[in-house]
Design brief:
The chain is an alpha+beta fold. The protein folds into 2 domains: 320 residues, Outer membrane efflux proteins (OEP), CATH 1.20.1600; 68 residues. The strands form 2 sheets. It has a 4-stranded antiparallel sheet, with no helix packed on it. Strands 1-4 form a two-stranded parallel sheet. Helix 12 packs antiparallel against helix 13. It is elongated and about 145 Å long.
């Protein structure tokens, strides 16, 4: 930490530089490369996944659960500390002890004790087993967090690609309408059409401007969602590099096959299964705690007898055992609670299996639907719509078509292109969503 004077010095304003120095500084600033924090960052799909794994604070937080579980395991394996006691007793209070005025004799006691019930009744071993299961559960939960965050990052990546494509299409539509407006204004100036067509195209352009603005907002939302998943706090531009096009569509999976794969690979199911094992271990731990505490002890005593009663000072030792008799408290409540947790864990596992069946069914059907739309989509439909639009535009410029026909062709092209973008985006979303539901990359 800086001292107060240094802070005051740093806070003081710098003297105003000379005009020549200002010009040189400005020139140097212009030549400087932009700061890395102000440069845009571009990510492909693999970079999105890697960055999310390394920088996402949610993943970092989930990893600490493993560290905490490992710390609990260390604690479970520690031996109890011995108890050392030192005391003096029968010390003179209001007069000194002598042979004629005997008292005491004063004595010094030192002892050491250490519980051994952790060894006799397996309490430490049961705690270690429970702690190890806790580490296993935390590890599975962490793997499930990674599964969900990667799935979210991939979905955000393709949402940005879709939003970018929709924005480019809206901008293209706006540019086409603007060109058409110029054609109409030229025809109005020549007397070829009435001003009503100019008004009509202005309304279409106004609607197009609103569509562009809406697509910009959608893209901003998608980018901010991706930024959050990447753990990027700085306000830097983010771009994604990729394509919605599909070279070879993957074949859909049967529901039973997908469900079986999910049972084998889903880390959340593994976590629930490990929670069952931990619940059984916790019951054994709580039952071992019902056994009494056993604390053997050994001690040394020095009696100062010579001055107090006239006998030589004497050394002695003693040993004993302290046992807590479990007459009333036999850990009944914690044992009952542990058994209840076991029942609860079984119910949670069954509920998750039921929900998984529904999730797999929905994921398989969604991918099959997206696959069917993609396969049945006429690859020449988009090109045909574009050709019709361009030919009608040319015909209108020559006076062979009406404005209604031109706008209708433009609308058909716009809707066709939107369906083209949406179908491919839905394919990628449903593919990766099904992979996430299975817990393994099955479809590529």
């Amino acid at each position: 930490m800086q001292d107060f004077k240094e802070s005051d010095r740093d806070a003081a304003p710098d003297p105003e530089p000379e005009p020549e120095l200002q010009a040189e500084t400005a020139s140097a600033e212009e030549k400087k490369p932009p700061s890395p924090t102000t440069q845009g960052r571009e990510f492909n799909l693999n970079q999105v996944i890697q960055t999310a794994l390394k920088s996402d604070p949610v993943i970092q937080s989930a990893f600490e659960n493993i560290t905490q579980a490992e710390a609990d395991l260390i604690t479970a394996g520690l031996l109890p500390n011995p108890d050392v006691s030192v005391s003096g007793s029968l010390i003179p209070l209001d007069r000194t002890f002598t042979v004629n005025r005997q008292g005491g004799p004063p004595q010094f006691d030192a002892g050491i004790s250490m519980p051994i019930d952790w060894f006799l009744f397996g309490k430490r071993a049961a705690a270690i087993v429970s702690g190890q299961h806790g580490v296993d559960v935390a590890t599975a939960d962490f793997a499930n967090t990674i599964r969900l965050r990667i799935a979210s990052a991939i979905a955000a990546f393709y949402s940005v690609l879709e939003a970018q494509a929709m924005l480019e299409l809206a901008q293209e539509n706006n540019a086409n309408l603007t060109k058409l407006e110029q054609i109409i204004l030229n025809r109005v100036a020549l007397g070829g059409v009435g001003t009503i067509e100019a008004d009509r195209i202005r309304l279409s352009i106004f609607s197009s401007h609103r569509d562009v603005h809406a697509r910009e907002l959608e893209l901003n939302v998608a980018i901010n969602q991706l930024r959050s998943l990447l753990g990027i706090v700085e306000n830097v531009p983010i771009k994604v590099k990729g394509s919605l096009e599909i070279a070879a569509p993957a074949e859909p999976l049967p529901i039973d096959t997908a469900f079986k794969l999910a049972e084998e690979n889903r880390p959340d199911l593994l976590s629930l299964q490990r929670q069952l094992a931990k619940a059984n271990a916790d019951i054994a731990l709580e039952e071992s705690k019902a056994y009494p505490q056993v604390v053997p002890k050994i001690g040394y005593t020095r009696q100062f007898q010579e001055q107090a009663i006239g006998y030589p000072d004497a050394n002695s030792w003693g040993a004993g055992v302290d046992i807590v008799v479990p007459l009333f408290d036999r850990n009944q409540g914690n044992i009952a609670k542990a058994k209840s947790v076991l029942v609860q864990s079984r119910a949670n596992l069954q509920a998750q299996l039921t929900a998984l069946r529904s999730e797999i069914d929905q994921g398989v059907n969604a991918f099959a639907s997206a696959h069917q739309i993609l396969v049945n989509d006429d690859p020449g439909q988009l090109e045909a719509a574009k050709n019709v639009r361009d030919k009608i535009n040319q015909a209108y410029e020559l006076g062979g078509k009406t404005l209604i026909e031109v706008l209708d062709a433009q609308r058909i092209y716009l809707e066709t292109y939107r369906l083209h973008i949406t179908s491919r985006s839905n394919y990628w979303h449903s593919l990766y969503q099904l992979n996430a539901a299975i817990g393994k990359e099955v479809l590529r």
